[in-house]
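Q: I'm writing up a methods section and want to include an example of the input and output format. Could you take the sequence below and give the corresponding predicted structure tokens, formatted cleanly so I can copy it straight into the document?
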Amino acid sequence: MERLVRFWREYAADFSWSYAIGAVCLIATNAVAVAIPGFVQSAVDALGASGAEPGQAASDARAWGFAVIVSGLGVIVVRTLSRTFIFNPGRTIELRLKNRLFDQLLDLPRAYYDRVRPGELVSRGTNDANWVRALVGFGSLQLVNVVLLLTFTLARMFVDDWVLTLACVVPLAVAALALRVAVGVMFRATFQFNTELGVLSSRILETYNGIGVLQSYGALGQATARFDATNASLERLGTDLARVRALLLPVVNVTGNLCVVIVLMLGGARVQSGELTLGQLAAFTVYVNLLVSGMTGFGWLVNAVQRGWLSLGRMYEVIDAPTERLAPDATLPHEGDAGCALSVKDLTFAYAGAAERPALSGVTFAVAPGETVGVFGLTGAGKSTLLSILARVYEPPSGTVLADGVDITRVPIEAWRAAAACVPQEAWLFSATLAQNIALSERGAQPDPDRLSRAVHDAGLAGEVEALPSGLDTLVGERGMTLSGGQRQRAALARAYYRDFRLLLLDDVMSAVDHATEKHLIDALYRRCGAATTMIVSHRCSVLARADRVLVFEDGRLIDDAPHALLAQRPGPYAKAWQLQQAAEALESAP
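A: Here is the clean output for your methods example:
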């Protein structure tokens, strides 16, 4: 109930007037619908009236028949209005709910996406949102309609003949009991169906994203088998739901036919005894049909309410997911300075599900404003994790990372992201032009040409841009598929250079470039480094050689901190890597 009250307050309350008008139209619909059997009764009684002139009886019957036609047309009009005023808000509510979900997805930290698969989120934003719309539209209409129809019809039947009404209520009560059992079965099956639908969405999305790998390794058969297994499970659950519904509606229809038989048997005897007129008997058969339609509507109502209720809960699970951020109560001081001072104190961090093996353990170091610091370590040493934490892709423990003396977890995330530029190891490009990818500008918005030109030049992309068919206006395709790995890395680097930043975080951005391009990038990089505090992760010691100092990591721990010249002479993993890389370069340059 609390969830329903919250949903009404947040999304549906603004449309109270529309629901109220729709409810009035439903009242009119059912009032007129229940009046029609009375007109049928009067028409039949008029034809069978004793002592009446044949012409007059036929005229009266025609008048009542005309009343039935007019009432039917009236039902069509008010029923259409009721659907208009009750269904239409559902579309707007669906839009608002989807926007709220999307805003939440943009705000959730990376740790959340490590736990929840993308396909599951897609399913909640599409299938579940559609069922919530059905809940507030079709479900609301059916709820009011069924209650009014059953109430009006039973009340009118009791007034006409309570004995015959009770005889019809008994089998209807049995049908209601069968509905109750079916509701429980359908609820469990619906929950499993929605969950399995999310799994299927994840399977499809994973296969789509990895289609190149699957084709290259000839693994399409295994992917298809996984899809078939999940799809078979979903098919089984859908069949179970369809089977319950297939049993549910016939029970109601059979009960309705049984009620008609009861009406004809008992009602016929009462007509012969003079307790009922023939018109009342005819009206009772129409009432029974109304009751059956109401019970059938109740079955569809249960389906819509169950699915909508479960779907609303699944969407609220995402909307209410904690962002894992503290309430911001601080600002970054000295925003006009070139760089910010960083202080990392006893930083320990573990990924979800791997608490027994922290990615970083007891890391402590400080970086002066404008200083350039390299980060070195073998694969799995914790370098990328450190930069992800400094960029607040993952939130650090409170008090472990300070910028200009301020705990970064207390700084609004938007302000921190505006101050820091991060280039991740995996360059992500959007299906847009190269210029739009670098400037991250929306379609139609024009990037600053001078700033764009400088960013492209310093990222070593100027030559490649000239060779592209439309230069910077060339569409790079989804994920930058038309560019090489090195070009994608440099495009991501140009994206960082395009911005104003006080902290520059580079995660192995030169791993896919040749040595000639690397030299150009290093020159441009260190030319820009004086304008900001910079941290550079790289496996190449040549990239780190000009840094003010280098942090050496091993198994998540900081094991050394010194300038390149000292580390190259000091025994350890850095010196070993430097020697191997120098030897490799010598071999490449040998005639």
